Amino acid sequence: MKAKLWGTRGSVPSPGPETIRYGGNTSCVGVTLSDGSLLALDAGTGIRNLGLALPDEPTRLHILLTHLHLDHIQGLVFFAPCFRPQTEIVIWGPASPEASLHDRISRYISAPLSPIEVRELPCDVSFRSTPEAEWEIGPARIRAASVAHRGPTLGYRIDEGEDSLVYIPDHEPALGADLETLDPEWISGFGLAHDASLLIHDGQYADAEYLSHVGWGHSALSHSLSFARRTGARRTVLFHHDPLHSDAQLDGIEAEARELWVAGGGDPGAVELAVEGAELDVRTPAPSPVA
Amino acid sequence: MSAETALQKPLELILARNLMSALSTPAFLVDEGGILVFYNEAAGALLGKSWEELGTVGPQEWGSLFGPFDESGEPIPYDELPLVRAVRDDRPAHAEFEIQSADGTRHHVEASAFPIQTTHGSRGAIAVFWPASTNEAGA
Questions:
Q1: Short-list A203, A207, A201, A136, CA closest to A169
Q2: Number of domain units in chain B
Q3: For residue A18, which of A288, A253, A243 has the smallest C-alpha distance?
Q4: Which sequence spans correspond to the domains of chain A?
Q5: How many other C-beta atoms lie within 10 A of the C-beta of residue A273?
């Protein structure tokens, strides 16, 4: 299983010279399974470049939406495969008691916010609320579960063989809770993220910034690292960068993250910040030989 | 039960516990099976024993420790508590009764419980207690 980060930014696109290295596009991760099946995790503006990179041939692909905030769906109407009649797209997302997934997404893909309607998309598109139980796409087992954020929001776990990718881009597990002392069963997202080969997790705020953003649905750096440590993630990529964070600031946050991770007994190479365009091999490292 | 729920409580219970932890109103939380999974500090003060001190107790032990008791002083079966009724009947429940704290003090309380429903069904229930009056045991 391989992953490519097409959009790493949270909240709103933030292009410009000060964000050119970590990227300015909003959330989207492309996941290619061993049989070639393609999944897109979220459809922020990063999905536009994912679409442009796909060959113009009959394709079936799945888009797994964590939630419907604009930074996770804004790229849908700019995703080239949506305009190819030979493409079949299945869009998965959180259920709501209020309206179907189709109807909620149609609020964005409709006038006056969009020049086209869902029914006018040339592709064969369908909408499915994620089931509570695990399901299969190609050779992978997929699981979705609610996580602590504002509004119905999911995290996803993709297992293929021994390898697992966990994607929780918008997550505030420390809201009203002490992650260091809680029993694991009381930690939001623990059931999804335990023992992940690769954890892509919310890393929106520095600790000092979090104090003025409590309840906004995102993590402080130390919370993200506590979550990664408690869940036993083999490798952690901090994602959903705050739009105000420049490349220089993110360099500083990454250095601090590694320092904190090492202070907690971790491998400095096991924590990094998400970089737009980065390709990640999702592989559980083999156990070290016993000396 | 999925692997998810085996490792972790449903998010709705986690969020309920986090909210309850910040309240000064005594509050209790049961899971979808009607098993008590948490009560907050205010409830601990009422019972004279914190949740952390209590450890795991089953319905029978709960009754012998805290009651509750009806107006004639008879124990109320665990299955008839508002919290358990709210889960079982999937609707709000209310009752007035006495509970006994660890030091023997009895508290006359009103309890209101409501189920926690999600798009995937019921997850459990929350009850809040409103102390009505206090009488020393045997007085």
A1: A201
A2: 1
A3: A243
A4: 2-281
A5: 23
Torsion of CA B14, A198, A159, A289, to 10 degrees: -120
Whole-angstrom Cα distance, residue B55 to residue B47?
14
The answer to whether residue B83 sits within a structural domain is yes
CATH number at B35 reads 3.30.450.20
**Cβ within 8 Å of residue B44, ≥6 positions away:** B50, B51, B53
If one counts every other C-beta atom within 10 angstroms of the C-beta of residue B22, the result is 9
Tell me if B8 is assigned to some domain. no
CA gap A10, A69 in Å, rounded: 10
Residues in chain A whose Cβ is within 8 Å of chain B:
95-97, 129, 132-134, 143, 145-148, 152, 175-177, 184-192, 194
- pLDDT tens digits, A136-178: 999 999 999 999 999 999 999 999 999 999 999 999 999 999 9
Gap between the Cα atoms of A168 and A238, Å rounded: 10
* Residue B82 is assigned to a structural domain of this protein: yes
Q: Which domain holds residue B97?
A: 14-135
Q: Is A184 exposed, middle or buried (0-12, 13-18, 19+ CB in 10 A)?
A: middle
Cβ contact B120–A187 (<8 Å): no
Whether B63 is in a domain gets the answer yes
Return the residue in B15, B17, B18 with the most chain A beta carbons within 10 A, the one to mutate for interface testing: B18
Q: By three-state DSSP, how is residue A264 classified?
A: coil
Query: pLDDT > 90: what percent of chain B?
Result: 60
Within 10 Å of residue B133's Cβ, how many Cβ atoms? Answer: 9
Whether A177 sits inside 8 A of B18 (CB atoms) is yes
Class of residue A282 by CB neighbours under 10 A (exposed 0-12, middle 13-18, buried 19+): buried
* Helical residues (DSSP H) of chain A, grouped into ranges: 46-53, 101-106, 190-193, 207-210, 221-231, 247-263
> A252-285 pLDDT, tens per residue?
999 999 999 999 999 999 999 999 999 999 987 7
Subunit contact A146:B11, Cβ cutoff 8 A: yes
Output the pTM of the full model.
0.90
Chain B hits for A155, CB-CB cut-off 8 Å, are none
Burial environment of residue A115 by CB neighbours within 10 A (0 to 12, 13 to 18, 19 or more):
exposed
Q: Is 3.40.50.300 the CATH number for A2-281?
A: no
Burial class (CB in 10 A: 0-12, 13-18, 19+), A25: buried
SS3 A119: helix
Angle between helices A221-231 and A247-263 (to 10 degrees): 40
